[in-house]
Amino acid sequence: MSSIALEVKDLVKSFSLDGAMINAVDNVSFQVHAGEFVALVGPSGSGKTTMLSILAALLSPTSGQVLIDGQDLAQMNEKRRVKLRREKIGFTFQSNNLIPFLTAQENVEFMLRLNGQADKAGRVRSAEILARLGLSDRLHNLPAQLSGGQQQRVAIARALIHNPAVVLADEPTASLDTERAFQVVETFAKLVHENNRAGIMVTHDLRMCQYVDRVLQMQDGKLVRAVETKKEIMELAHGAIKH
Ligand code: ADP
Ligand code: MG
After folding, report:
1. Which residues of 189-227 are buried (b: 16+ CB within 10 A; e: fewer)?
2. How many angstroms separate the alpha carbon of residue 45 from the centre of ligand 1?
3. How many domains does the chain have?
4. pTM (2 decimals)?
5. What is the per-residue pLDDT across 218-234, written as a single tens digit (0 to 9) for each?
6. DSSP result, 53-67
7. What is the CATH number of the domain that holds 44?
8. What is the pLDDT of residues 156-176, one digit of tens each?
9. Which residues surround ligand 2, an ion (CB under 5 A)?
10. Please, what is the angle between helix 104-114 and helix 120-132, to 10°?
11. Predicted confidence band at 112 (pLDDT cuts at 50, 70, 90)?
12. 17 lines ligand 1 (CB under 6 A)
């Protein structure tokens, strides 16, 4: 039995908006095992980005718990939380936040540098992972010299390079064409499986679910459905392709 890499218990995040309180995340619980790739789907405004930001330790929940590798985020001081985020979490958000004056490869290696692992082996691995994402001829280009989709793939490489326990991606295929999107998510899935990481990908494109092990569906901040068998996941993904 593989270990639980991420555990969410009774998670709530409330925002006050124009005097009213809304629960962007409304009492959500789930677990993700090491080696498991999960899709988080749901309509716009259902709380996906809020959830991911809390899992990435970028936003504090109103109540509830997040445990990464058994460690409770809320129980740590800011210094330990920063260290855990740097070492154990990889993330890529819709805006990719690449550093403009570093090349593609340097951007990826930056994560290793933060963790004191920027050595020769790291250089080889960063080139390897960029190649697997179809960027072997773009290693030495600056972000401004790359297309939106290429930048997004660099951000995915950066999220994976330091072998974090948990990899979080918010709409990683948003600026990719369909064929490239399939390739990137397939590679993403392989990297999660091969390296025994826990992966969570937010997507509004159900076709991408064909590469995941489980689909969690959110609505109005709640988890309303979990699709867990390969057969049902394929039906969901292929149903989306037909429409
Ligand atoms: P999704 O990523 O699924 O589109 P979000 O997590 O971005 O959804 O948003 C969920 C809900 O929380 C929305 O109703 C949104 O307006 C609200 N929300 C998100 N962030 C804030 C914030 N900082 N302040 C107030 N409301 C917010
Ligand atoms: Mg969002």
Report:
1. bebbeeeebbbbbbbebbbbbbbbbbbbbbeebbbeeeb
2. 6
3. 1
4. 0.92
5. 999 999 999 999 999 99
6. HHHTTSS--SEEEEE
7. 3.40.50.300
8. 999 999 989 999 999 988 878
9. 48-49
10. 130
11. very high
12. yes
